[in-house]
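[step 3/7] fold_predict: job queued, chain A
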Amino acid sequence: MVPVMTTSPHPLVIIGAGQSSLAAARAARHAGLSALILEAASEPGGSWPHYYDSLTAFSPARFSAMPGLDFPGDPDHYPHRDEVTAYLRRYAATLDVEIRTGTRAHAVQAADDGGFTVRTADGQDITAAAVIAAGGSFTRPIRPSLPGAESFTGQVLHAADYRGPKDLEGRRVVVVGGGNSAVQIACELAIAAGPDGPDRIRIASRAPLTFLPQRREGRDVHHWLTSSGFDDLPPAWLLHRLPGRPVMDTGDHAAAVASGRLVRRPMFTALDGEHVVWADGTRERVDAVLTATGYLPDLGYLAPLGALDEHGLPLHAGGLSLTHPGLAYLGLEFQRSFASNTLRGVAADAAHVMGPLAAHVRDAPARVGL
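[step 4/7] structure written:
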């Protein structure tokens, strides 16, 4: 049995050391709060080190910097995965905050004084007046139920399992999804397959693919997102009006689909042995199905609190818990805006939740006599 070790109380514990957590630590410092970051991995960086090898940020460097540290290199270049990872580790080094790596949050429980106890996987009990859950979602990929999967003789994997074309070299592959990752991976596989690409690589989506040009009138789309205020529109407005999930595109991906170099088909109806069965009844032999179907927040450590719904999703408004004062979330998709859960948007979300958290830590109602 692992012995329980109890540490002295902390004003704020932040779970995770990715972009959202680092933004939270900076916001906490400006609010006068001392923060402790718990990170399961050996270094800060969040999900970025684990994405597929060719991934680049969708925003240019000038729109990928976080407050207090410029992104190095040409402001108009699109940083590679490894550049973002290195940047986040430099950013962490600029913060006056303790980061305990190799420390996984196992369970969070409510304390009698209105705070929280964070139990770690190695048996520590860390007490905190407030907690920010910002551990990301890469460890909880959405793996859809595919009809007939139990009979399928090929491989079924998720984008979280994919690193590069060599993983699927020489194989017939259907990529499932209609978002950025699905299209990028499918195009990468089609290019790697060369002349065989149109015969071996398919992308299957429930709706036709839609593309958002990466540049318009000589400027990256992120200039228009920020200068127009689009980034700040509330999620309810956006989700009602967005045409599905448009794919950011410099022109190459749309051209690949239009030319037939990448074949898009409506979602298949079933897997059967070594085949997919398409909606029109035709059958096609495939060796692998790769689902690029997104991720969900990995918040199982909050289950003891009763802070999650029946799907394991947080009960919150704009990142502030609806069940527990002093609990907040960062890094949720569309948490407050289109820019939430992006390098350019996490600082604004962190500032939004930090004021109420600081008031909770300082017991603001008691200070004013309530």
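[step 5/7] annotate
The domain at 149-210+245-291 is CATH 3.50.50.60 (FAD/NAD(P)-binding domain).
Confidence is low (pLDDT under 50) at residues 1-6.
exit 0
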